[in-house]
Amino acid sequence: MAQFFKAKPKTTTIKALRDQQVLDLDHHLKGVVKCQGQTYFVDGVLPGERVDILPSAKSGPAKLLKRLSSSPERIEPACGFYQQCGGCSAQHLSVQRQRDYKQQAVTELLSRLSTYSQLPEIDSLFASEWAYRRVCRLSSWFDKNAGWQLGFRQKASKNLVAVSECPVLEPQLSALIAPLQTLVSSWPKKVGLGHIELIACQPQTVCRIRLTQDLNPTLQQQLLEFAQAQQLAIVLASNDQQSWLCGDACYYSLDEQGLNLGFTPGNFIQVNGEMNQRLVSTALDWLDLQANDSVLDLYSGIGNFSLAIAQQVKQLVAVEGLKEMAQQVTRNAIANGLSNVVAFSGDLEQPDTAQLWQGYKINKVLLDPARAGAKQAITQVAKLSPSTVVYVSCNPATLARDAREMKQAGYRLTKLALVDMFAHTEHIETMALFER
Predict the structure, then answer these.
(1) pLDDT tens digits for 124-135?
(2) Of these residues, 79, 88, 250, 394, which one is catalytic?
(3) Domain annotation for the chain: domains and CATH numbers
């Protein structure tokens, strides 16, 4: 038998970089380290600190081996789980400095990518930095000794860390974590517990439980008793279906506008209720709405902006990608006594979707896309030539890209705001006002 030589694959040993200085924070609030012509990004460090790091073998952030010095800006995190839990990434920095760095990131990204040579002064919209989340998702895993466990993903890991409370959640949600843990720990592995979503809404808090198997009558009765004791509504979800075990409807309010918006558990709603109210009210102000306006609301969701706009204008046209959410816009309009709302569903990444709003004399536009931005939709918006466009963004990089399209179409960027929707995290939300 012939034998062939097969060389062993070469292995590259990655060496630690010792005593490196953190130069800045990037727009993800990661520390920037430069060494021998390479740039590395490191979690949990601040400018001016000296660190030992281990570069990643792939494209991920470098691993912090040791922090050799501390910045004067470093503070003690308020949450006891912060060092393990990956939900927050900036509790070691004061909330004001978090906002300063986020403003800096927005300025740098738009200056570099949008082609606007001069940017307006950035305003800041902020609210409570603690107890602000009205929605959370608890992950689960099965421990052969302790049963089902609930928690959040660890920092820079796919592993999970058990938590008993969370200070960024609204208090009634944080208080549910421990009793829920006690409840599910005795459930058998075969129920296939997925995540548990908690939603602080009206008329009562909703607990949405994802399962791969139906619960038997005994466990359902246990859940009903738990719901009664905790004053909860329970939704059971499996595959593509879900049903109310107890309770049958939920909504949240925009108090300044006197609106109630119904939604289905699992639909997207802004997780920070206080900031959402500020966001909506600011959008109304920037749009400078008049009684004869016809406004187009793209990526409308369940009508978070649509209904508030419709109260002040002649016509509101809402477009949402998901059919069920577009239908919810119509239901919400009727429930709030608004007859000037029309809602369509359509893929806003397809140019043909623009046919949905042809025939309406649109003169103002609001859009609130997902992180991917509105690359196709913004082109269609520019073709409409509205006088005013308010763009709500959860990704400043794609906002900068789409702003370039607006500039080419002849629009001025006249207002810009940082929206601190997620304090203590790297996430940056912004609002931009474009005018002809």
Answers:
(1) 999 999 999 999
(2) 394
(3) 17-74 (2.40.50.140), 100-129+272-435 (3.40.50.150), 135-200+203-246 (2.40.50.1070)
